[in-house]
Amino acid sequence: MSDAPESGFSLELGEDLARTRDWLHEFVASVIRPAGAEWDEREETPWPVLEEAAKIGLYSLDFYTQQYLEPSGLGIPVVFEELFWGDAGIGMSLVGSTLAALSVVANGTPEQVGEWCPQMFGGPGDVKLGAFCSSEPEAGSDVAAIRTRATYDAATREWVLNGVKTWATNGGIADVHVVVASVDPSLGSRGQASFVVPPGTAGLSMGQKFRKHGIRASHTAEVVLSDARIPERCVLGGRDRLEERLARIREGGRAGEQAAMRTFEASRPGVAAMAVGIARAAAEYAAEYATRRVQFGRPIGQNQAVAFMLADMAAAVDAARLLTWRAAWMARQGRPFLRAEGSMSKLVAGETAVRVTEQAIQILGGNGYTRDFPVERWHRDAKIFTIFEGTSEIQRLIIGRAITGLDVR
Ligand SMILES: Cc1cc2nc3c(=O)[nH]c(=O)nc-3n(C[C@H](O)[C@H](O)[C@H](O)COP(=O)(O)OP(=O)(O)OC[C@H]3O[C@@H](n4cnc5c(N)ncnc54)[C@H](O)[C@@H]3O)c2cc1C
To answer: Which residues are catalytically annotated?
Structure first.
C-alpha cells in the first residue's frame, strides 16, 4: 500500500481479484497456452481442457457468478483477459456458455436462473455447455429481422419453435440453448422473446458446423428448430409478463429494450477483455522476440522502426484495457452507458487486437507467418472481435447515435 492520501480513485485490483488472476494465470500458462496450437488444428471443442478447468473450479457456474458479482466490476474483464491471453479458441470454449447464462440472467426470473444456468456448466466428470442463438441467415447485424417463430399451443401449454439459427457458439452440442424468436412478427423486434430449449428437446438439431478462420477450438454451427416443443415456463421472464409487454406495445406504449440487445449490452466489456488478452499476448511475444532476434549485429528491437511499433502496441493494449475496465466498472455501478461506453470498449479492443497481432507477425518476419509460432494464430483469432457481438461498424453506429442524438444509419 502506498502512503499517498486517499484519492477516491484507484486502478488497483482488490486483493481477492489479484489472487484470482495469479491463480488463473498459472493454469492458463501451463495448461491452456500449450494446448492452443493442437486444438486450433483439430478444430474441435477441447473437452479434456474443459474437464481440467472444471476440476480446478474454473469452468463452473460458481466461479463465473463470483466474477460477475465482484464489487469493482473488474472480475470478468480480468478473468477473460487472462484466458484469452492463453488461447482464444480454448478461451471461447470456456466462456461460450456464459453468453447463454447472461441472457437468462438478463431476461429470466430468479427461478429460471436457478433451473437453467447450472445445466449450462455441469461439473467435473459431467461438463455441460450452453448456447445463445440469436443470429440467423437473414438476421445478423439486423436483429429485428429474426424470422424464427414461437407460437403458443394452448391445448398442450407448450411453445412451438420453428426456424434456423446460425453462427451459434456451442450450437447443437450444448445442453441448453437459449433461442431468440418472434412471438408477434407484426411488432418487429419488439415482438421478440427469448426461450430456453431444455436438453434433449426433439426438433432441435445441429445444421452445418462452420470451418473457421480463427477461434477454431470453439464450435460454431447452425441450429435447426423444426416444431421444437418446449414447456410454457421456458419463455424467459414468464408468459404473463410477455403477454403484458406485448399488449402494452400493441396499445402504443413503451417498448422496452429488445431481449437480444440487453444480452449484448451486458456482455460487451467482457468481449472487449477477450480481445485485450489476445493483443497483450501478441505485444509481449513480439517484444520478447525483438530482444533476441539479431540482424545487422544487433537485436532488431534496437531499431526505432521496431521499437516504435512495440511502443504503439503496448500503448494500444493498455488503452483498450482502460476503456474495458471503465465500461465494466460503470456496468457494475449501474451507470447507464450514455455515451455507449460498452460499445467503445468493444470497438477499440477488437480493432486493437487485429492491429497488434498483425504488427507482431511483422516483427517476427518469416517466422511470424508460419504455424511454428503462435502469432499467425492469434491474428486469425483476433479478427472475430471486429465481427461478432456487433461488428465494428455497428459499434460505431451505436456510439455515433449516442453522442449525436441523431438517428445515424
Ligand atoms: C465465430 C462466430 C461466433 C458467433 N457466435 C454467435 C453466437 O453464439 N450467437 C449468435 O447469436 N451469433 C453469433 N455470431 C454471429 C455474429 O454476431 C454475426 O456474425 C454478426 O452479428 C454479424 O452478422 P452477419 O455475419 O450476418 O454480418 P452482416 O450483418 O451481414 O454484416 C456484413 C457487413 O455489413 C456491415 N453492416 C451491416 N449493417 C450495417 C449498417 N447498418 N451500417 C454499417 N455497416 C453495416 C457489417 O458491419 C459487416 O461489415 C457468431 C459469429 C461468428 C463468426
So the answer is: 389
pLDDT less than 50: residues of the chain: 1
Q: Quote the pLDDT of residue 260.
A: 57
For position 256, what pLDDT does the model report?
57
pTM for this entry: 0.96
The pLDDT, as a whole number, for residue 5 is: 67
> Could you tell me the distance, in angstroms and rounded to a whole number, from the CA of residue 93 to the centre of ligand 1?
19
Residue to mutate, 103, 165, 167, 194, ligand 1, most ligand atoms under 8 Å from C-beta: 167
Nearest C-alpha to atom 50 of ligand 1 is from which residue?
A: 167
Which residue is closest in CA terms to ligand 1's atom 41? 409
Q: What is the pLDDT of residues 244-302, one digit of tens each?
A: 999 999 998 765 555 556 556 668 999 999 999 999 999 999 999 999 999 999 999 99
Q: How are beta strands 176-182 and 130-133 bridged, if at all?
A: parallel
